[in-house]
Amino acid sequence: MDVTEIRPPGAPNFCLALPPGIGAVKPQVESPVFAVEPLRIAVAWRSVLSRAPRTEIVDVSDDGLSIEAVQRSTLIGFIDRISARAVPMPGNRASLAVYSRSAVGYWDLGVNRRRVVAWLDALRQTLDEDGRSDASASRS
Measuring CA to CA, which residue among 94, 129, 101 is closest to residue 116? Predict the structure, then answer.
């Protein structure tokens, strides 16, 4: 996923989370910045995804920094696609760009935003448990 090229759809059925100063559009959520290398964030993100219900990792880039996943809704099984990329930041820090969107429908009732915020919180906790977090951004 090239975070500088994301152009969200006109429908309100997505959530974009970006690190400060990254990307061509304003995100709905600002991703936290961590005092770890990008690969460590990507590994922790895969751990978060593995614990999420009805979620499957469908692709990981050769460098391990981009992760594609799908999550199915509880009742009907609608598919949401979640793309993430660990992004290097100045000062030996890194963050995560996340683009979550519904495959069908116009309105998602805030599901994608709640997912992104919850999973970024879980990422923070995962890195904190490893003693490797120094998150320096707030939720938007």
Answer: 101
Is the residue at 31 inside a domain?
yes
Judge contact between 27 and 131, C-beta under 8 A: no
What's the domain count of the chain? 1
Residue 45 sits in a domain whose CATH number is: 3.30.310.80
* Confidence class for position 8, pLDDT limits 50, 70, 90: confident
Higher model confidence: residue 140 or residue 62? Answer: 62
- Integer-rounded Cα radius of gyration of the chain: 14
Q: 111 in the Ramachandran plot: left (φ > 0), alpha (ψ -120 to 50) or beta? A: alpha
DSSP conformation class of 52? S
CA distance 3 to 97: 7
DSSP state letter for 5: G
